[in-house]
Specification:
Layout lengths: L2 E6 L9 H8 L6 E6 L5 H13 L3 E8 L5 E4 L1 E3 L25 E3 L4 H10 L4 E4 L6 H15 L5 E8 L6 H18 L1
Amino acid sequence: MKILLTAFEAFADDEINYSKEVLKKITNIQGLVKEVLPVEYLGSFKKLQSLIEKEQPNKIILLGEARKYKSVGFEVIAINEFGEKPDSSGYIHTKRKIIATGDDGLFSTLDYAVFAKELTNKNVNFFRSFSAGTYVCNAVLYQCLHYLKTNRLNIKCGFFHVPSDETQSTDSIASGLDAYLLALLKAK
């Protein structure tokens, strides 16, 4: 069993990205590969795709930060829409669809019940979110789910947003995600 866990680098005027801070605090355990992605509509998935091909994980967990969230968000769905804000390279998409012929939406394939159980046991606040937004987080999740589906790869994938402030400490969130990752690795 191998899990690929990613977070994003800092972007805009921020000096840190809370998803990266959480990633750094996740325990390094056998079977876990941790990487940081650029905040770019296409560049993030380009790097992720090469990691998928190199690492051949069984599960992919993508982390990002959400400025309006006060607890960890389990993103249920990614939509086939680019946002209107420029990414960290300054690029703005002129087309609407991420994948011209893709489904309007694709659902996370991770088991919510395991996530909920482990975060509850660690007293980490969380909720199910039905919109990953339209920025890079949504774009990389959609591209990843589409890639896995069209290539018929039996890899589970999902996205969790962490708050972008200390509403919940990054230590607390990392502790909850540590428990979740261990549960996934034990389940094989």
